[in-house]
Amino acid sequence: MLYKKSVSFKMTYDSEVDAAYIYIYEAAPSGVDRTVTVEDDNLAESVFVDIGKNSELIGLEVLDASKILSKDILDKIKQ
């Protein structure tokens, strides 16, 4: 079954270090248990996934964000 619904996530961007964070859970009940690197040749060492103690997705950290995220997304985060 396919579900379609617009969902908003909190996102932050630090231009000094060119890093963005996309919060799936703003305050995860179990806290971050581990961080996993996305295994992709184009994203290696740039995208990290935070996973909670109950194996829930908590958030995504994006380093070199200006190279990976679109200008439109970064502009929206900065507003």
What does this structure look like?
- Helices cover 15% and strands 37% of the residues.
- It is of the alpha+beta class.
- The chain has a 5-stranded antiparallel beta sheet.
- The longest helix has 8 residues, at 71-78.
- The chain starts with 9 loop residues before the first strand and ends with a helix.
- The mean pLDDT is 86.
Detail the topology: elements first, then pairings.
Elements: E1 10-14, E2 19-23, E3 32-37, E4 47-52, E5 57-63, H1 65-68, H2 71-78
Antiparallel strand pairs: 1-2, 2-5, 3-4, 4-5
Helix content: 10-25%
Can you tell me the overall shape?
A: globular
**Gyration radius from CA atoms, angstroms:** 13 Å
Classification by helices and strands: alpha+beta
What series of H and E elements makes up the topology? EEEEEHH
Q: Low-confidence parts, pLDDT < 50 over ≥5 residues? A: none
- The fraction of residues in strands falls at 35-45%
Name the descriptors.
79 residues, alpha+beta, 5-stranded antiparallel beta sheet, 2 helices, globular
What's the short story on this structure?
This protein has 79 residues and is α+β, with helices and mostly antiparallel strands.
